[in-house]
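Per your request, structure below.
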């Protein structure tokens, strides 16, 4: 899909594709929809609907609501995704969800709306194609000057806007890849005040949060790398120092894997955090070690009332999950299957809660 010259405020026809599928998949979409008044180019949402006679009737109309979403006990009909890119890569945007959209909408299924969130990114002085350093730039770019918790504040505002469009509590799955997984879990597992965010909007609660090749324990990306990833220590130190500042206590407070389990449990009881989490990590990931998933899973095992599923869909390089689309989509199907089961597993069995059957797995 070609990016429009101006932010789209109306539904239009479109097509998406996955490199592991034949042909294009038709959709109805709204690209670069602002979620804050007067925001910059990355304070936007991309919205996708399957192309049906009903959704085609929306073409040309302003985006005022999201059709097809139900309330009550039905399974979530919406997927909301937060893209990765190490908090700083301007070339990785919400459009990276399109291969997953292709798999989701190749046939009509339970997900009828997919939303992807852009957010303010951090400076990237060493970007190979588009370097940016605010201290030396001849022209400032507010879309590339985020320091934590600015990225997260944008995610809160995007989720709040989705609520205005009809996405209520329990009506959506929230997924994220890489640093997007970090942002997704930050937004659900702790209140905005935990991140010293004053005045953040109230956001809907996801039915489940799914993390793919995620970054969860930020200090461990510097001090806890295994031998296979130890060569990345300086790179991680540099990007974290820019995205979160040099104070390592801020790295700790921002880490989903270091949030107090009692805080998470309280939010689950209050229906402010989802009761289901799925963590999936490729063993071949050249950028993120497996111990990021394992550290997070071990912390989540201490949360009363929370069900944590260890997925097995991700394989290959770090970017394969979003570039192919099928891995994220199958993880979504797995989460929907677990939600449909409706029963909690014993807490001591969490690590064995895997998807082994064919078909729905």
């Amino acid at each position: 899909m070609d990016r429009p010259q101006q932010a789209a405020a109306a539904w239009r026809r479109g097509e998406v594709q996955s490199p592991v599928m034949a042909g294009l998949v038709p959709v109805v979409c709204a690209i670069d929809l602002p979620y804050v008044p007067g925001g910059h180019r990355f304070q936007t949402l991309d919205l996708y609907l399957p192309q049906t006679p009903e959704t085609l009737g929306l073409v040309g109309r302003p985006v005022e609501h999201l059709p097809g979403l139900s309330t009550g006990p039905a399974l979530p009909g919406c997927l909301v995704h937060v893209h990765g890119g190490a908090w700083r890569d301007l070339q990785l945007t919400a459009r990276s969800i399109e291969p997953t959209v292709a798999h989701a909408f190749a046939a009509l299924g339970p997900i009828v709306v997919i939303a992807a969130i852009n957010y303010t990114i951090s400076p990237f002085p060493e970007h190979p194609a588009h370097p940016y350093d605010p201290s030396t730039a001849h022209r400032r770019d507010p879309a590339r000057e985020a320091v934590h918790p600015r990225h997260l504040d944008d995610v809160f505002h995007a989720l709040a806007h989705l609520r205005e469009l009809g996405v209520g509590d329990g009506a959506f799955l929230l997924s994220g890849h890489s640093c997007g997984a970090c942002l997704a879990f930050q937004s659900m597992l702790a209140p905005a005040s935990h991140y010293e965010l004053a005045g953040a909007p109230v956001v809907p609660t996801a039915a489940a949060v799914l993390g793919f090749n995620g970054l969860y324990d930020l200090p461990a990306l510097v001090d806890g790398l295994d031998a296979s990833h130890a060569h990345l220590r300086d790179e991680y130190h540099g990007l974290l120092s820019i995205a979160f500042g040099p104070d390592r206590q801020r790295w700790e407070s921002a880490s989903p894997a270091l949030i107090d389990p009692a805080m998470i449990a309280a939010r689950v009881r209050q229906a402010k955090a989802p009761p289901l989490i799925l963590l999936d990590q490729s063993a071949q990931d050249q950028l993120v070690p497996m111990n990021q998933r394992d550290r997070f899973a071990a912390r989540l095992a201490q949360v009363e009332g929370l069900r944590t599923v260890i997925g097995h869909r991700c394989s290959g390089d770090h970017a394969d999950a979003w570039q192919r689309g099928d891995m994220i989509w199958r993880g979504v199907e797995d989460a929907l299957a677990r939600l449909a089961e409706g029963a909690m597993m014993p807490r001591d069995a969490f690590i064995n809660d895997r998807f082994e059957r064919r078909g729905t797995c």
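Strands lie at 12-16, 25-34, 44-50, 78-82, 113-117, 172-177, 208-212, 276-280, 307-310.

Regards,
D.
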